[in-house]
Design goal:
Number of strands: 10
Length: 218
Amino acid sequence: MTSRTVHLAVYDTFADWETGYTTAHLAQNGYTVRTVGLSLEPVTTMGGLRVQPDLALDELRPQDSALLILTGATAWDTGGTLAPFARSAHAFLGADVPVAAICGATAGLAREGLLDDRAHTSAVSFYLAATGYGGGARYVAADAVTDGGLVTAGPTEPVAFAREVFRLLGVYGPKKLDAWYRLFHDSDASAYEVLAGEDTEGPEEERTQETGDRGAGA
């Protein structure tokens, strides 16, 4: 993977809180975050912020990206407006470029068939079951799950979601990744010294399946 650009999908009622940790710390570690909309028209987040997309979805190519991030939004459950983003996720995974989906975006990927053969999580199992997807047996009650290049998490797990993205992209070695999580999830002040110190480890190798070990899926 050579690209250092991460693409963040934005649309009306985008759930602001779900990707703040992820994008902020990727940007602090040498990644460029670009926003992608269905068009170049501004969108309004759930928190009332206006966002001008950097590019339209039809301009997005997997080969230009290190990761596609999809957040929750009411539109995932009220029609097919956001289905093009799920199709883009399909194209990304087919090109071996990872995807990270949280909250309602997991339902969009379920409808696209992307969770049928991958371990995954979401808000609760019956939320995804309502989509009629075929992956119910692969549901994991965990804070966040990574399998086959796809990160999934529920809406109350933005820190675990970020942790899995950092693991997948090799942003931190294992000790720093653990320290980052302890600092931002557990408010463990002792983790700061580890996180601020020199990283003498190599990036943690990508695993075919990684399930969070702190708490059940939200």
